[in-house]
Every structure is written in structure tokens, then in C-alpha cells.
Amino acid sequence: MRAGRRRTRTAGVLVASALAMGALGACRMERGKTVREAPAEIALAPAVERAGVHEGGVLALAALTDGRVLSSGADGIVRVWDDAGTEIGRIETASPSASAGLAAAGDGRVALLPTAAGVLVWDADARTESTRLAGAVEPSRIALAPDARAAAAAAADGALTVWPLPAGAPPLRLRPHAGRVVGLALVTGSAGPTLLSAGDDDRLCETSLADGRARCVEAPGEGTSVVAFSPDGGRAASGNRVGEVRLWETATGRALGTFAVHDGEVTALAFTPDGTRLVTGGADRMATLLDAATGRVRRRLLAPGGYVSAVAVAMDGRTALVGTDDGSILRWQLVR
Predict the structure, then answer these.
(1) What whole-number distance in Å separates Cα of residue 194 and Cα of residue 96?
(2) Which residue in 48, 120, 121, 256 is a FRET match for 244, CA 20 to 30 A apart?
């Protein structure tokens, strides 16, 4: 790990063409019909500022409670940024694909990223490797329990592995999906950790780690591209290739709403910590702040590059992090 050099750009250039998008209105689904609403506000500086930059596309983002940001990029580097956008540390991976996923405990004690041989556990405060969790071959999705007592990874073939932390106890092997896993989360309840997963087989699965039993429900996604779970695990949000965001009740698979949000594929999703809003990213270069109950777009951001590649929400719910395929990381004020 070594300190990096700060790179900045003027935030104003990121939104120079935003006014040209003003005629675009948000859409929502109402009783099967697409309803076009009045245009949502497009964010401008100083509501948007540079939070970091990679020498390649941003692959994943995580926010820590103290304002620091973890980011992984196609340059094969996981970087640590302070709240002023200065790089204060980094870890270099063996290949760019190794940093495609990233998960972190909010206080920064533990961060995880996948490697070809398994999952790397990293202490973000000490900026040192802690241990490696073997048994998941080239994982494509990873998750970390909020209390950092369990980690999970999904392999490319859909196999799931869950490790108790600190490492030592044998991992749990699962295969609740017939194909690729597109969403993965660990939540902690009164009965202990529960693994939530979503697959391109159009199923949502809830697995109690106490007995390893998976309970799955059907949740057709019309070409699901990305899935996020609410912090309490009660709801799932899925994005598809035609720009729709769908909300589901995790336990039953009951559809809660379908909203037309993006002009093209939904590429990233994240709930706010209170579960009331969603931050979405799309192939149309837009990031949106979405009301999770009504589907109404409250605010929009026109990002640089070709598409939004990653989003995350700060622990206080006041700001969002938006990563793009050109390596930009933006800090977007959601509450003013």
C-alpha cells in the first residue's frame, strides 16, 4: 500500500451538457402504463464535486462512515480516498478483473475484493492484507455482513460460498441458482446472518446461515442486469436492459412496482441507508435519485464518459458516489 497523488478536474465540465437534457422527463409505471412526469432537477456544481479518478473505468465503490471512499478500477488498483478527493492509500491487484467487486464494513475495519484464487480480506485502516478466503474460483460478486462477521462470494457458474469471520471455521457451500448471480447481500437479523441472492434465472433467494436452507421465489426481471437489496433485507430492487427499475418483496417475490427510469440498460443500483430511496445508474450517462415507494425521480445527474458503472451511498444518506467508465468518481449531494 502506498500513498497516491491527487488528480482533480473541474466539476463544471461534468455537467456542461446537462441543460441539453432538460427536456427529458422521468417515467413511472402506473397500472401497466408508462407515465411521463415533469423533468427532475439536473444536478450542477457545487452539488457535484470530484471525489477521485482511476486510469480506467470504475468497477465498484464503497463508502465508509468517516467519509473515506474505497474504489476499484479497470487499472487493477483499489484506492482509498479522503473526503477531499485525495488518494491516501492503495492496493494493487494481480489483474484488472480481480477488483471488479468490492465490499466493506462501514467503519473500514474490513474490506474485501475478489481475486482469481478466492477472496482477499483487507484491513482498510491498517491498509494491509489480512487473510485470503479460499474456495471460490474467480468470484464475480462478493458481500460482507454489516458487522463484518461473515463474507460471501458468488462464482461465475452461480455457486455461492459463505465464510464465517474471523476466518477459521469451514465455509458453507450453496447453489440456489441455476445460472449467474447478479445480486448478493448479507444482512444480520435476530436469527443471525442471512444471505440474499438474485440470479439471472429470475429468482430471489433467502438463505439462513444457521441451517443452510435456501427459500427462493420467482421474480421475473425482463433481462435483469443488476440487483440491490435494502439494508434490512426486506426489499430488492432490480434493473433491466430496457431501463426499468423493479421493486420486490424479498420474502414473497411480490412485485411492488415497475418504473421506467433510464434510456437504456440500468447499470448500477444502491439503496440509501434508511431504505427510502434508490440511487441508480444507466447506460444513458444518467444517475438518478429515486423514491423507493413511488418510483418518482427526485434528482438527476448527467455524468461524464459513456455510462455510469458504479454507485454507492454514504452512511449518512446525504451524498452518493457515482463512478463512470472513464474513471471518474463524483460525490453528489443528495440533501441540501
Answers:
(1) 30
(2) 48
